[in-house]
Amino acid sequence: AGRPFSREASHAKLAATDTAMQVISVISEEAYLSFARAELRMDDILEEVAFFEDQIEQLAEQRDALIEQQLDALKQELAEGDEPTAEQQRRMEQLDAELDRYVEQAWDLAEQMRLRAMQRRIYDFEDDFGDMLEDEAHRLQTQGEDLHRIRREHRHRQRAGEDDGRQFVDEALDRLRDDAEGAEQFEQHMEQMEREMDLVRLADDMLAQVERMASIIREQRELTDRLAEFRNRETLTSQQALRAQRMAEEQASLEADLTETMTQMDRLAEEAADKLPNMAQSLTDILDELRRLDVTRDQHEAAQLARAGEGRYAHRAAQSAANKLESLLRQCDPQNLQ
Questions:
Q1: How far apart are CA 43 and CA 56, in angstroms?
Q2: Distance, CA of 113 to CA of 74 (rounded, Å)
Q3: What kind and span of H or E run contains 26?
Q4: C-alpha torsion 313→319→320→321, nearest 10
Q5: What pLDDT is attached to residue 66?
Q6: CA 259, CA 302: separation in Å to the nearest integer?
Q7: What pTM did the predictor assign?
Q8: Residues 15-32: what's their mean pLDDT?
Q9: Sequential DSSP letters for 2-25
Q10: Taking Cα atoms as reference points, which of 136, 154, 162, 170 lies closest to residue 60?
């Protein structure tokens, strides 16, 4: 069954109105995913990757501080003496409390990773991303359980008078060092995925601009069809002149959209020249043709003429822009952008 996606509806006939008609659509699952991809851009996912990388890095800094500033020193001091001093006992109690905070933060991050991994996966590559998060969440959960067990057994031995702290320090140190290796592997995998996702982001941005270009083509034709009410008129009534003014603003807006889209396509083609050369060339070909056809000049003239009440000539200029743009429809099909 299709997934409904509603937009504001307009029921007036195109010939009798100066505004574009919108419809209510029921779209397929595939179309829904396409819409979702348009809403959830690659930049959003890259921000999520950066967030999890940052959180893992913060945990790593805490872990390294525990190892280098406390555990290593305690291990060496305890090895050199017979019984722990009162100061060393105090430091072990402080270590126990800091390990508890470390575990809680690790578990909180693990829960965030699990929740993200459970979200619906819009892009194919999110399967790998989700699996990585699930694996890392499991690693963090297991590490926390091990550290809690080490702390619990240490307190049990203390109550029984069987622990001088050496076993506690040794086990905590070994477990944190093991964790450092696992965290490093995760960070390496995330960095590799980030590089791959950046390419997908670039391709995604290029496709978005081509889709925007296709939309401009459709909007230009729709506006031209509405301007057709003036094509055989030498003079306009006051109501027609008012509609012509509104259409002039729409035409000016379309010209600005086309100019901005061309600017973005130019930027992306340059960025992708070495990374995605075929797609970059496709964009360059579209831009070269747009400049050769000088579409924005026709759009500019159509807007000026409509403002001046020259409905017949405004329609003629808009028609020229629409025809030129429609000659690019095949090139602006995302399926042809390789």
A1: 20
A2: 33
A3: strand 25-27
A4: 110
A5: 92
A6: 15
A7: 0.61
A8: 47
A9: PEEE------S-GGG-SS-----E
A10: 136
